[in-house]
Design a protein that fits this description.
Elements (H helix, E strand, L loop, with lengths): L1 H23 L23 H23 L3 H9 L9 H16 L1 H26 L4 H25 L2 E5 L4 H34 L6 H10 L13 H9 L5 H27 L16 E5 L3 H11 L13 E3 L2 E3 L2 H15 L3 H6 L5 H16 L1 H12 L1 H5 L3 H12 L4 H14 L8 H9 L6 H14 L9 H12 L7 H24 L5
Antiparallel strand pairs: 1-2, 3-4
Helix pairs in contact: 1-5, 2-3, 2-6, 2-15, 4-5, 4-14, 5-14, 6-7, 6-11, 6-12, 6-14, 7-8, 7-10, 7-21, 8-10, 9-18, 10-20, 10-22, 11-12, 14-21, 15-18, 17-18, 17-20, 18-20
Length: 527
């Protein structure tokens, strides 16, 4: 059965590539010399909605000019451009996927775990084919493909490289020891990303608590290490990295996000400490060692070099450095060298890893496989939802609603259910557009971040940044590491709460109050 599943997985991956293959016929050749690239101001990771809207505007201008030359009306150009817009019902596949992710493990577990790759691929294919052949819109699927390509390359390389590092903490589990480890993870997340920190520390965290492990241990790990912890640097969380690539200064996040980050970490750690002190249940009490060395042993440390290579490769971007080869598509330059480096790290870090460390970590490819397929479905089906939200945000009605409060709750609410990286870009683009700024202009993004030319812009950007990171922990699908940590925990037999159970038992009663208090302190009355 496993062999059949693996064979099917290979087939659907090939099918996905073939599904997008007609789009590549319009891609320009790889550029090794970017002499005229100064005219290209876009950055490497562009969300599908913004790029599509920009391209549609250009298409409409071209059509109007063509109409003038041939006696055609402006109305024809408008009708042609509007044909690219998805109708409201096109979000149904995305809603169906979310519902199945939420209910599958709870009500039809065997069917879901056997068939989730087929379901995710099928729903994504429906939306992609509708975009290609009904809307005649290639831009959305192209951008969704490259966003997914970049997303899975980063997650897979960090997951596999960290899987070869075994950390053994020979210390008695206690609420204080656990709290210190979570705080350390929150700091480390800003150095190697929330994904890297999660993959590096989740196994030691579970081993430390193996005699008293409960689902809340994993949930608060997701809250603190996999999400909120990565608020201080662009490396910390994908939305902040996209902002950095757009032009937000590297030091901006630690300067403006530090106090919300500190409050969030202290709040969540205190709640966790309260939970952990009340946990008196001991599993296999007779097996608990009586003597501890209180030492930390690390094996497979050479894989830290592979992690370092992944972090360095993150900055190899063709829109930051002109000499980096790129794939050109309608004025956009898409990275592929960075992703090839990351996939190479996947292979070599596993091929030359310390086998004892791999074995001690009970390393398995299943968690990254599950994330890969689930997020194929998410990236493929969420295109209409993101586009409709972006259109409203940029409309005259939406512009009137722009404030730090609406940006905080709007960005946050969608970041919990859509991938928080494109959500961040959509709301940043909308907030800039409301003041006449262009997200595709590096100089204007810098001015917007520094607050030198646009009123309240620093506050708006801060609201978007904090919301995208904090709300990413509201559900399993809000941020890539969440689902991966859940899958790892389930691999070792921890019964994790369902999609709705996670929200009802943990994120709403414990994470949401922290989010509300953060809003009250830092945003509600801020000027």
């Amino acid at each position: 059965m496993d062999q059949d599943n693996n064979r099917f997985s290979t087939r659907v991956i090939i099918f996905l590539i073939l599904l997008f293959s007609p789009l590549f016929g319009q891609l320009y050749a790889f550029e090794l010399d970017s002499g005229n690239s100064s005219s290209v101001n876009e950055l490497s990771i562009e969300n599908s909605t913004n790029s599509e809207l920009a391209t549609l505007d250009q298409d409409q201008n071209d059509q109007e000019q063509h109409g003038e030359e041939h006696g055609e009306t402006d109305e024809h150009g408008s009708e042609e451009a509007s044909s690219h817009k998805p109708p409201g019902w096109s979000v149904i596949p995305f809603v169906v996927l979310l519902l199945m992710i939420a209910t599958g493990p709870l009500f039809y577990e065997h069917f879901w775990h056997k068939n989730y790759p087929k379901i995710a691929i099928l729903l994504a294919a429906i939306v992609v084919l509708y975009y290609l052949f009904a809307l005649n819109n290639e831009h959305g699927p192209v951008h969704a493909f490259f966003e997914y390509f970049q997303f899975i390359a980063l997650l897979a390389s960090l997951y596999i490289a960290s899987g070869g590092i075994h950390i053994d903490i020979d210390k008695k589990s206690s609420p204080m020891a656990n709290s210190i480890l979570l705080i350390c993870g929150a700091v480390i997340a800003n150095l190697i990303g929330t994904t890297g920190a999660s993959m590096l520390l989740i196994k030691p965290f579970m081993r430390l608590n193996k005699h008293r492990i409960k689902p809340y241990h994993i949930v608060f790990f997701i809250f603190i290490v996999s999400n909120v912890g990565g608020s201080l640097t662009p490396i910390g969380d994908p939305p902040l990295f996209l902002g950095f690539l757009k032009g937000v200064p590297f030091e901006w996040t630690i300067t403006h996000n530090f106090f919300p980050w500190l409050f969030g970490i202290i709040f969540l750690t205190m709640v966790f400490y309260f939970f952990d002190r009340r946990n008196k249940d001991i599993i296999d009490e007779d097996e608990i060692p009586t003597d501890f060395t209180n030492k930390i042993k690390v094996s497979g440390s050479k894989n830290f070099a592979w992690l370092g290579l992944v972090i360095i490769s993150v900055f190899i971007d063709p829109n930051v450095f002109d000499w980096v080869p790129a794939i050109n598509y309608h004025g956009q330059r898409f990275s592929f060298i960075r992703e090839l480096i990351m996939f190479a790290v996947c292979y070599f870090s596993y091929r030359f890893a310390d086998k004892e460390a791999i074995k001690s970590n009970d390393f398995s490819f299943e968690p990254i496989r599950e994330v890969a397929f689930i997020f194929i479905g998410i990236f493929g089906t969420m295109m209409p939802a993101l586009e409709l939200v972006s259109e409203f945000a940029k409309s005259p009605e939406g512009v009137k609603l722009i404030s730090q409060n609406t940006l905080y709750w709007g960005t946050g609410a969608l970041s919990g259910f859509l991938d928080n990286a494109p959500t961040y870009l959509n709301f940043l683009a909308a907030s800039m557009a409301s003041q006449g700024a262009d997200i595709n202009s590096i100089s204007e993004v810098v001015e917007y971040a520094t607050g030198s030319s646009y009123p309240h812009s620093q506050l708006y950007l801060k609201a978007i940044s904090i919301a995208a990171v904090f709300f990413g922990a509201m559900t399993y699908i809000g941020n890539g590491p969440n689902f991966m940590v859940k899958s790892i925990a389930e691999q070792v037999g921890i019964k994790m709460p369902s999609f709705f159970g996670y929200m009802i038992r943990f994120s709403i009663p414990f994470l949401l109050p922290m989010i509300i208090i953060t809003w009250l302190i830092f945003f509600l009355f801020a000027k």
